[in-house]
Amino acid sequence: QENLKQARDVIESLQLAELDNFFRDACLDAKPVNIDEIDPNAAIFYTIILPDRLEVIVTLPGQPLRQITTNLPQPEIEKQLALVNTNIIDSWRGLRKKNLQKIHDWLIGPIEAELANSNIRTLVFIPDGALRNIPMSVLYDGENYAIEKYSIAVAPSLQLIDSQANVRENVSALTAGVTEVRPHRPKLAPLPGVKVELENIKGQIPSSILLNESFTESNFNTVVNTSAYEIVHLATHGQVSSVAEETFLLTWDDVINLNELNSLISADQKQENPIELLVLSACTTALGDSRAALGLAGIAVRGGARSTLASLWTVDDLATTELMTRFYQKLAKGKVTKAEALRQAQLELLQSEAFNHPYYWSAFILLGNWL
Which of 164, 173, 313, 325 gives the lowest tally of CB atoms within 10 Å of its CB? Predict the structure, then answer.
């Protein structure tokens, strides 16, 4: 137990060091935190890929730590993860569920019975390396995807989670998006679904909308600083990279980089509380950058929001609109956690005929506070 605790602490500090390195400064506000205090129905999975094996340390509320070891060389593990990745982002190919089952057996399989006995409803992953690029919702047990049984969240580190559960009353959103091709980034395709997406959100939650020419950096800055919003939803092209300087979001007239996004959101004079949820609904992680998902964790930590909802790859415009509309419907009712709202929205897409392939429903991951 003592060794497992030490190993878990080492993983936490490695994650923090990697994020500090990503920002090129050490300014993350880490506080030791106990899972029992955050959520008695959540299990935390720490993964670390070593040269000769995969180690998973599982924290269940009020119980000794569990260790799951898979003896496989790192190149073999990474090859399997790459296969899964290719398989789920290509909606035209037949889905090889056996590959998804393999990853499930590495991570969850050995303690599935204990999860049931402990009444675990949420799985929180603190993933390492290539595991960051896999949405854990697609893990398959032979009959069901993980999302059919659990809400799922990702945390860059448990110590970086703002662990308060927020009482969601009178929630309001600031939504912004760009639907057209812009001359300063001509290769980025139009996003016609964005207008519908933002209008649908407004139908669920009181929202201020900045669309197209009204979504400039200066305008966004003004609006954020004159009213307080619980949710900031950005439906615009962007790229998330493992290099902070290459991470950007498209506005009508320019791009916002990661540091600007951070200062725009956290400089908000009206925000007495941190923004509850930052949603990036049309961003993509940089192609061919195996550590790009680290950039998502970076945004989650630095964006000044308690939780971030973002996608691991570019998703079909229509499917995103569907998913977001359903997500906000669940959230607006206020009876579920953010992770559960996402789960229910993803399940509805999975059960539909048009969007049942994981490419459509599994790309979006919730980072940070899942409550």
Answer: 164
